[in-house]
Design a protein that fits this description.
Elements: H1 2-5, H2 10-17, H3 21-28, H4 36-49, H5 55-61, E1 67-72, H6 76-81, H7 84-96, E2 102-107, H8 113-122, E3 128-131, H9 140-146, E4 151-154, E5 164-168, H10 171-183, E6 189-193, H11 199-214, E7 222-224, H12 229-240, E8 250-253, H13 256-268, E9 278-280, E10 297-299, H14 302-319, E11 325-327, E12 331-333
Parallel strand pairs: 1-2, 1-3, 3-4, 4-5, 5-11, 6-7, 6-8, 8-9
Antiparallel strand pairs: 10-12
Helix pairs in contact: 2-3, 2-4, 3-4, 7-14, 10-11, 12-13
Amino acid sequence: MAARDRRPTIADVAKLAGVSPSAVSFALNGRPGLAKETKSRILAAAAELGWRPSRPAQALSHGKAGAFGLVLTRETDAIGADPFFPAFIAGVESVLSPRGDSLVLHVTGPDDEAAAYTRLAADRRVDGVLLTDMRIDDPRPALTSELRLPAVVVGDPECAQGLCAVGLDDRPAFTSAVERLVELGHRHIAHVAGPQEFRHSRRRQESWELAVRAAGLTPGPVLPGGFTADGGAAATRELLAADARDRPTAIVYANDLSATAGLAVAHQLGLAVPEDVSVVGYDDTPLAAYTHPPLASARADALGWGAAAARALDAVIKDGRADDVELAPAELLPRASMGPAPAGGPGRKSERTTIRPTVRREPC
């Protein structure tokens, strides 16, 4: 039973077809040098046995690893909590999995990042890499070029340093969020920002600030949220601890994770959303539509982004280069966590908030 259930090999195909294993390899890999009748007999034997090629072996025979690399320089728990990466990785896998290729994921610290790319290139474990979380003065585009490791930047072409970039403009979503809040009467709009070493964090903050200034308003306070629930919660507590006459009537967050935590903190402090404070996130995670109230957010199609990045890396590996890809910009989804500013604006304390809660600061 065990012998019958085992996976057939090239040797099995060769025995059934009456040829050598090397002839089977030539036939199955489409190489010239075999008579047409011999090749047909080999293919028929393979079909009869249910033989399927080993993707790693097939890749190696063509001088390829059959894998892409993704090195993430973040804390492991932060990656698990960030809703972007599961969707992005699923998009990459939607391209790789049907053909039997794989994604090699490395989680590393800042001090080991360069070594991780060097090992991937030296060991030929991957055919190319996807560069995410682009930073200010990021060394990775130059490093991958030096290593002759094909790479695609997931982000703004301005940070790609000549590499192919697959980008999605998140600025229109933040502009739309501020414009909508201003239409609803808000005049004191705060921002909970992502890590400042990331280019997309700075771009989102700049978009928020430009939109607030374009409305003739003074940008409200900016506090770090770090793209985390703890960071979003701590920043929200600090913002809402201010006297009712000074605290913001709306908070725009850099991502949904920090916004969802902020929503919970507002409830804990006895404030109603959106009657006392409006809350806006970014990412449109599956949970966003099921919070109470549903979280206003922006749809950025991380899954489609991953698939587009994988296809671009395919082109770079094959042709040595590829044109930049610009995906559809993020779109604001103004759900029920956005509402009119409290009557009287930021200078009026909500009638339902009769006791100011004691605020306990927690570290980000």
